[in-house]
Amino acid sequence: MQKTSCFGLIVATRGFFNAQLAAGARDVLLSVMEQLGYDYVIVPQDATPCGAIETRRHAKLCADLFKANADEIDGVIVVLPNFGDELGVVQALAPL
């Protein structure tokens, strides 16, 4: 039986933009992943203010989660719905 693909998901945001854009994008992304039947690893919704990555601390949470699940993750999907902070994304992926 073929393994279901698993993706590490990062929704990035910037604090001065409307956080609802990031929260809404996260909801849509999770819905699409479930509809398509993919497994995923994402920082818990309540781990950051809107369930998205913005700060260095958020990036560390994401990096630690991805590292703990590295054997399962086949790729990473990054979503920047409100011009998210790409530095947080880089910091989350750098240790991998």
Tell me about this structure.
By secondary structure, the chain is α/β, with parallel strands linked by helices. The chain has one domain (6-93): Rossmann fold (3-Layer(aba) Sandwich). The chain is 41% helix and 15% strand. It has a 3-stranded parallel beta sheet with strand order 2-1-3. The longest helix has 18 residues, at 19-36. The chain is globular, with a radius of gyration of 13 Å. The model has no long low-confidence stretch (mean pLDDT 88).
Topology overview:
Elements: E1 6-11, H1 19-36, E2 39-41, H2 56-68, E3 75-79, H3 86-93
Parallel strand pairs: 1-2, 1-3
Helix pairs in contact: 2-3
Write down the oligomeric state: single chain
Q: What fold name stands as the CATH topology?
A: Rossmann fold
Supply the CATH architecture: 3-Layer(aba) Sandwich
Read across the widest sheet, the strand sequence of neighbours is 2-1-3
Number of helical regions: 3
The fraction of residues in strands falls at: 5-15%
Notable traits:
single chain, 96 residues, alpha/beta, Rossmann fold, three-stranded parallel β-sheet, 3 helices, 3 strands, 15% strand
In short:
With 96 residues, the protein is α/β, with parallel strands linked by helices. Helix content is 41%, strand content 15%.
